[in-house]
């Protein structure tokens, strides 16, 4: 259980009942998490599209291009060049596909230059009779390897490569003395080599973009819902603590108004100071300041000074962002001792990225009003408490480690 606002971790003698809260401080979603979810969804969508593109390129090259080349080998102008080009593209495409799936694609333009060189060689070597057959495998296959080479880049580069491929094919068709039927078949082949690769290339990019946007909208909606729930819980907790703190202050004021206690009684003064410290801390917890812990400790120190207690507040380092519950466990035990201090006090805060230590030194004195927590070390879960007194000084420390 965690001590409520202003209540000491080890109670000091007084009629106030310990104040408790069982609702933990809500944990807000971080901006990094909000950005990671859309990126993860986009990465998964893009990986699926890469798998499809690699599968199409290699399957088409092996299942359609190779059987056609082997079947028409005797009719090719230079079968060794056509088969050698097929093997070179198969190896380059396999390496490019594996690297693409692993997220480290090959340099695009050297690979594109190799593919265009093979394109020229095959069109020259395939011969007139096999120019428009499946044995001329560059017609249907090369565009897919262009897609693998330029994946993730602008579509303008893919269109430029396909246009170069079409110009090479046109030169080859014109070089064989085409008739109108050859020109019509050329147009049909160029349309096929352009439309499907470009459609897959652009479609995959659009799907990835839509997936990222929808994931971002969903993550933002969940973050807003989480923030709303956390704000509602914090408001309920704050109202509960305000009720308890107001009740403690009301009892002291009621007793004073009814004449049941003496205002000059040190114990009554201590109870008033403690109630005021609790109310002041409750207000300080909701302030939007860079260092909430230091802000809350300064509020307690200011109250002690207004009551005539000279106090030094020394800070070393900057505290990391801490939940309200942790700040309360660090400050509350010292606030109780500070309310009982006489003469002078020294409050020290030493902070690092993974640790915050708050210590308080005051003069020790006899009497029941000076009774503090049991001497020694006490572990309150995430925060450790240490309290010592030797008849000369009282020393208390709270320490948080990540």
From TrEMBL:
Region spans: Disordered: 1-31
Superkingdom in the source lineage: Bacteria
Keywords assigned by UniProt, alphabetized: Membrane, Transmembrane, Transmembrane helix
Transmembrane stretches, start-end: 51-72, 78-101, 108-126, 132-151, 158-177, 189-211
Protein name per its UniProtKB record: Uncharacterized protein
Organism, scientific name: Micromonospora parathelypteridis
């Amino acid at each position: 259980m965690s001590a409520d606002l202003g209540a000491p971790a080890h109670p000091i003698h007084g009629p106030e009942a310990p104040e408790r809260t069982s609702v933990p401080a809500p944990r807000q979603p971080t901006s990094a998490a909000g950005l990671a979810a859309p990126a993860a969804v986009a990465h998964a969508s893009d990986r699926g599209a890469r798998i499809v593109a690699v599968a199409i390129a290699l399957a088409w090259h092996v299942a359609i291009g190779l059987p056609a080349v082997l079947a028409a080998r005797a009719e090719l102008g230079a079968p060794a060049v056509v088969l050698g080009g097929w093997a070179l593209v198969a190896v380059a495409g396999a390496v490019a596909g594996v690297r693409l799936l692993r997220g480290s694609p090959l340099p695009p333009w050297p690979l594109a230059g190799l593919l265009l060189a093979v394109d020229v060689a095959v069109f020259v070597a395939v011969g007139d009779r096999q120019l428009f057959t499946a044995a001329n495998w560059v017609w249907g296959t090369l565009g897919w390897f262009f897609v693998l080479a330029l994946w993730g880049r602008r579509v303008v580069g893919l269109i430029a490569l396909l246009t170069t491929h079409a110009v090479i094919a046109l030169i080859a068709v014109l070089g064989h003395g085409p008739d109108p039927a050859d020109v019509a078949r050329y147009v049909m082949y160029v349309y096929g080599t352009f439309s499907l690769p470009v459609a897959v290339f652009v479609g995959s990019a659009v799907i990835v973009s839509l997936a990222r946007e929808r994931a971002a909208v969903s993550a933002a909606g969940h973050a807003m819902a989480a923030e709303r729930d956390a704000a509602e819980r914090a408001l309920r907790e704050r109202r509960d603590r305000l009720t308890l703190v107001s009740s403690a202050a009301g009892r002291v004021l009621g007793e004073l108004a009814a004449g049941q206690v003496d205002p000059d009684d040190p114990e009554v003064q201590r109870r008033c100071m403690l109630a005021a410290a609790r109310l002041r801390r409750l207000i300080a917890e909701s302030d939007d300041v860079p260092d909430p812990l230091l802000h809350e400790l300064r509020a307690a120190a200011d109250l002690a000074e207004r009551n005539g207690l000279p106090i030094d507040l020394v800070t070393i380092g900057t505290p990391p962002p801490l939940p309200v519950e942790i700040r309360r466990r660090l400050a509350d035990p010292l606030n109780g001792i500070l309310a009982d201090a006489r003469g002078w006090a020294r409050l020290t805060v030493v902070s690092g990225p993974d640790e915050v230590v708050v210590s308080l030194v005051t003069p020790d004195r006899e009497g029941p009003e000076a009774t503090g927590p049991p001497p020694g070390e006490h572990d309150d879960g995430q925060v450790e408490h240490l309290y010592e007194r030797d008849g000369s000084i009282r020393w208390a420390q709270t320490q948080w480690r990540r």
